[in-house]
């Protein structure tokens, strides 16, 4: 039953939407606007909110700041390291869990646990696993004759450690989404494909992959955005530092440092807007590709 | 390809979906697997496809057991109930898919797809996606995809159930045409008896996982092997009356649910002899009467209601063997082979009242209430329900309550003057009457089967008839 649009109905709708809208405006919209303005402050008194001059100095600073370049580079490495591997691995596990195996429900729960556990708790456990002398990982590797790796203290290995942790943590969520997507593919396509003499591999590439593409697309966008925002894993894993010799410094960590540790509020805002723009452009790009490749 | 099923059995846990099925489908034959839902017909099809593996018995393709052969290697084509066209591929890609899987060269793929599209008349749709096609077009694509790899068997799983009535009619003719053009052994699953009757060389009717009858459609209609088959085939459904033989008076007593006699039907001696042979003593059984196999004529001398072609002197006492005159123009709704029999055998007669009349156009449907006592309150009792329901509610074992109907639905010529409330006489030829055992529903009156005069008792009846006449 659709009512005619009128002032009365609009006001009524607004009334129902108000609680959510108020929270969104106060905690999201308002900060987004003010931080955009703040990124343009070049001479200001933060505590009294007095601005003497606006300009693009903060953005120019970011262009020249070695640390910001490092943060950008690290973030891209992180995203490239996490997203494809995470999607591949979680799709593979989802495919396994989607077959008729025993204890299927049990395994699904197990894989979902990392997602619902606190990042700090997870990171503390992983610090044990990554420990150079007593860690489980090095213990396992020693079976294959690999000499102990300084996972958390060697600048070369800090980023891979972070990527491993992030993949492991994101697995559960992706698996659940993939499983839902897989279950949306009607069984009869597989039956038809079998009668059409498609092998298991051919069935995956000709049926599962194209019909799962909306899910894959969703998962990839969510993962890319999530990975660009990585922060708490670093904070917990490296004990409040951005890795040995800033080897795990990411953009959000950079913003955090500028804002809380160096009180460079305007630079932090500018960096946040650069991150926002990068994510925005990448998402647009993904949407564009998605339109061409995704079969709904 | 010739297909043999030997003691085929399929269990799902404790449920036996298919129970010791034995049948042979000949090369190039179109066989319908027919039955109500849950009768095991789709399971049988999936067993043939190899999507299920039988728990007992064997399936033979051209004499070779293929129980454990995967569907990929059975050389079958299949059309699913919802067609299962790959939604992300164009029609061309859909039809080419089986060829691509077989690694057929590109040029040959294209050629065969075009040829197949022409056969099913969808050449102009090749570059569309399935979602842009109508139900009937999707159906054609599905058939093309099933046939393009030139399989040896075509399996169709309720392919018409998603189409509207008119399209269903058109598509079943199309399926028949394509099947005959290609000459492929085809198994067609359906729950629609009319569809099965119209399309098949033979019908395999199933119920509860068991074969009820496996025969040519016409044979099945004329000589159903049990009450279930009789009730399943035909629209309007066959009329079923409960009857009891009365040896003293040589009558068949039509009874109602309370086992009370509504009316007695006097029967001629030859027929009586057969009944006596089959049931010594007084026995209960079901009488099946097809809606088109009876004559309805006004009973009382209601003068203005008389039907001009009938003389009414003899009809009240059919046990007195008065031969009928052949009156073709009045009986043209009766099949010709039957028409010629009027006059040689004596019809049985029942009296009743017209309580309902429905115009169909080609002919009319009337309901005749046989229960004289309830003639005034005719709408109180339920009309004969739909065949399926009727069959399923009548469980043979344990259920002591008799479900009896006391009215008949009959087809009469469209212009015959029959009005509601008119008392009428219903005449039925013995050979048009089907008798079924009350205990297990099996057909009893085999000697009377008109389609099988070669049966041992058939000619003898005719001889006796002549003597009495």
From TrEMBL, chain A:
<protein>
    <submittedName>
        <fullName>Sugar ABC transporter ABC transport system, permease protein 1</fullName>
    </submittedName>
</protein>
<feature type="domain" description="ABC transmembrane type-1">
    <location>
        <begin position="72"/>
        <end position="286"/>
    </location>
</feature>
<feature type="transmembrane region" description="Helical">
    <location>
        <begin position="265"/>
        <end position="289"/>
    </location>
</feature>
<comment type="similarity">
    <text>Belongs to the binding-protein-dependent transport system permease family.</text>
</comment>
<keyword id="KW-0472">Membrane</keyword>
<keyword id="KW-1133">Transmembrane helix</keyword>
<dbReference type="GO" id="GO:0055085">
    <property type="term" value="P:transmembrane transport"/>
</dbReference>
<dbReference type="InterPro" id="IPR000515">
    <property type="entry name" value="MetI-like"/>
</dbReference>
<feature type="transmembrane region" description="Helical">
    <location>
        <begin position="157"/>
        <end position="182"/>
    </location>
</feature>
<feature type="transmembrane region" description="Helical">
    <location>
        <begin position="109"/>
        <end position="129"/>
    </location>
</feature>
<feature type="transmembrane region" description="Helical">
    <location>
        <begin position="203"/>
        <end position="228"/>
    </location>
</feature>
<keyword id="KW-1003">Cell membrane</keyword>
<keyword id="KW-0813">Transport</keyword>
<feature type="transmembrane region" description="Helical">
    <location>
        <begin position="76"/>
        <end position="97"/>
    </location>
</feature>
<dbReference type="Pfam" id="PF00528">
    <property type="entry name" value="BPD_transp_1"/>
</dbReference>
<keyword id="KW-0812">Transmembrane</keyword>
<dbReference type="GO" id="GO:0005886">
    <property type="term" value="C:plasma membrane"/>
</dbReference>
<dbReference type="InterPro" id="IPR035906">
    <property type="entry name" value="MetI-like_sf"/>
</dbReference>
<dbReference type="InterPro" id="IPR051393">
    <property type="entry name" value="ABC_transporter_permease"/>
</dbReference>
<feature type="transmembrane region" description="Helical">
    <location>
        <begin position="12"/>
        <end position="33"/>
    </location>
</feature>
From TrEMBL, chain B:
<dbReference type="InterPro" id="IPR015855">
    <property type="entry name" value="ABC_transpr_MalK-like"/>
</dbReference>
<feature type="region of interest" description="Disordered">
    <location>
        <begin position="450"/>
        <end position="469"/>
    </location>
</feature>
<dbReference type="GO" id="GO:0005524">
    <property type="term" value="F:ATP binding"/>
</dbReference>
<dbReference type="GO" id="GO:0055052">
    <property type="term" value="C:ATP-binding cassette (ABC) transporter complex, substrate-binding subunit-containing"/>
</dbReference>
<dbReference type="Pfam" id="PF00005">
    <property type="entry name" value="ABC_tran"/>
</dbReference>
<feature type="compositionally biased region" description="Basic and acidic residues">
    <location>
        <begin position="386"/>
        <end position="399"/>
    </location>
</feature>
<protein>
    <submittedName>
        <fullName>Sugar ABC transporter, ATP-binding protein</fullName>
    </submittedName>
</protein>
<keyword id="KW-0067">ATP-binding</keyword>
<dbReference type="InterPro" id="IPR017871">
    <property type="entry name" value="ABC_transporter-like_CS"/>
</dbReference>
<dbReference type="GO" id="GO:0140359">
    <property type="term" value="F:ABC-type transporter activity"/>
</dbReference>
<keyword id="KW-0547">Nucleotide-binding</keyword>
<dbReference type="GO" id="GO:0016887">
    <property type="term" value="F:ATP hydrolysis activity"/>
</dbReference>
<dbReference type="InterPro" id="IPR003593">
    <property type="entry name" value="AAA+_ATPase"/>
</dbReference>
<feature type="region of interest" description="Disordered">
    <location>
        <begin position="377"/>
        <end position="399"/>
    </location>
</feature>
<feature type="domain" description="ABC transporter">
    <location>
        <begin position="3"/>
        <end position="233"/>
    </location>
</feature>
<keyword id="KW-0813">Transport</keyword>
<dbReference type="InterPro" id="IPR047641">
    <property type="entry name" value="ABC_transpr_MalK/UgpC-like"/>
</dbReference>
<dbReference type="InterPro" id="IPR027417">
    <property type="entry name" value="P-loop_NTPase"/>
</dbReference>
<dbReference type="GO" id="GO:0008643">
    <property type="term" value="P:carbohydrate transport"/>
</dbReference>
<dbReference type="InterPro" id="IPR003439">
    <property type="entry name" value="ABC_transporter-like_ATP-bd"/>
</dbReference>
């Amino acid at each position: 039953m659709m009512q005619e649009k009128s002032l009365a109905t609009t006001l009524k709708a607004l009334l129902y939407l108000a609680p959510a809208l108020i929270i969104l405006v106060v905690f999201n919209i308002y900060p987004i606007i003010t931080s955009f303005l703040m990124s343009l402050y070049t001479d200001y008194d933060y505590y009294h909110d007095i601005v003497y001059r606006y300009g693009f100095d903060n953005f120019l600073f970011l262009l020249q700041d070695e640390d910001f370049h490092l943060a950008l580079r690290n973030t891209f490495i992180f995203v490239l390291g996490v997203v494809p591997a995470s999607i591949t691995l979680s799709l593979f596990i989802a495919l396994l869990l989607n077959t008729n195996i025993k204890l299927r429900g049990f395994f699904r729960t197990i894989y979902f646990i990392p997602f619902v556990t606190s990042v700090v708790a997870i990171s503390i456990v992983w610090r044990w696993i990554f420990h150079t002398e007593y860690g489980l990982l090095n213990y396992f590797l020693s079976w294959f004759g690999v000499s102990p790796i300084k996972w958390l203290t060697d600048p070369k290995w800090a980023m891979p450690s972070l990527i491993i942790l992030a993949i492991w943590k994101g697995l559960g969520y992706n698996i659940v989404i993939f499983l839902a997507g897989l279950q949306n593919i009607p069984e009869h396509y597989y039956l038809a494909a079998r009668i059409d003499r498609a092998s298991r591999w051919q069935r995956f590439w000709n049926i599962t992959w194209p019909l799962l593409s909306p899910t894959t697309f969703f998962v990839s966008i969510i993962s890319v955005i999530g990975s660009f925002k990585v922060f708490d894993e670093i904070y917990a894993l490296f004990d409040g530092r951005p890795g040995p010799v800033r080897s795990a410094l990411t953009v959000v960590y950079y913003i955090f440092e500028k804002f809380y540790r160096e009180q460079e509020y305007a630079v932090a805002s500018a960096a946040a807007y650069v991150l926002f723009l990068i994510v925005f452009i990448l998402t647009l790009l993904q949407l564009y590709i998605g339109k061409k490749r995704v079969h709904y | 390809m010739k297909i043999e099923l030997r003691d085929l059995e399929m269990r799902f846990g404790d449920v036996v979906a298919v129970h010791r099925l034995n049948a042979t489908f000949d090369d190039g034959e179109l066989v319908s697997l027919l039955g109500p839902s849950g009768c095991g017909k789709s399971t049988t099809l999936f067993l043939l496809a190899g999507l299920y593996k039988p728990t007992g018995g064997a399936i033979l393709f051209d004499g070779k057991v293929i129980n454990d052969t995967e569907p990929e290697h059975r050389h079958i084509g299949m059309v699913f109930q919802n067609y299962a066209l790959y939604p992300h591929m164009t029609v061309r890609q859909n039809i080419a898919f089986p060829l691509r899987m077989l690694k057929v060269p590109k040029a040959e793929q294209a050629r065969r797809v075009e040829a197949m599209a022409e056969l099913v008349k969808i050449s102009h749709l090749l570059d569309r996606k399935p979602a842009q096609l109508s139900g009937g077009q999707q159906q054609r694509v599905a058939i093309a995809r099933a046939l393009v790899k030139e399989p040896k068997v075509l399996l169709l799983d309720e392919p018409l159930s998603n189409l509207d009535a008119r399209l269903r009619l058109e598509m079943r003719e199309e399926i028949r045409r394509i099947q005959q053009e290609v000459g492929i052994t085809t198994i067609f699953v359906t729950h629609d008896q009319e569809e099965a009757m119209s399309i098949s060389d033979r019908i395999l009717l199933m119920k509860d996982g068991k074969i009820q009858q496996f025969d040519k459609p016409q044979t099945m209609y004329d000589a159903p092997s049990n009450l279930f088959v009789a009730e399943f085939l035909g629209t309007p459904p066959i009329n079923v009356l409960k009857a009891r033989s009365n040896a003293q008076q040589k009558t068949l007593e039509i009874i109602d649910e309370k086992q009370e006699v509504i009316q007695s039907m006097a029967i001629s001696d030859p027929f009586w002899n057969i009944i006596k042979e089959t049931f010594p003593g007084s026995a209960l059984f079901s009488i099946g009467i097809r809606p088109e196999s009876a004559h309805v004529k006004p009973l009382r001398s209601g003068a203005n209601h008389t039907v001009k072609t009938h003389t009414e002197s003899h009809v009240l006492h059919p046990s007195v063997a008065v031969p009928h005159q052949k009156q073709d123009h009045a009986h043209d709704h009766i099949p010709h082979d039957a028409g010629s029999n009027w006059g040689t055998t004596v019809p049985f007669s029942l009296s009743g009242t017209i309580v309902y009349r429905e115009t169909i156009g080609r002919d009319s449907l009337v309901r005749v209430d046989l229960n004289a006592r309830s003639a005034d309150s005719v709408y109180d009792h339920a009309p004969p329900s739909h065949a399926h329901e009727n069959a399923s509610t009548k469980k043979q074992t344990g259920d002591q309550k008799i479900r009896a109907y006391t009215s008949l639905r009959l087809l009469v010529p469209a212009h015959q003057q029959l009005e509601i409330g008119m008392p009428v006489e219903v005449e039925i030829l013995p050979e048009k009457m089907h008798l079924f055992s009350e205990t297990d529903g099996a057909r009893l009156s085999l000697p009377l089967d008109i389609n099988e005069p070669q049966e041992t008792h058939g000619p003898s009846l005719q001889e006796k008839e002549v003597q009495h006449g």
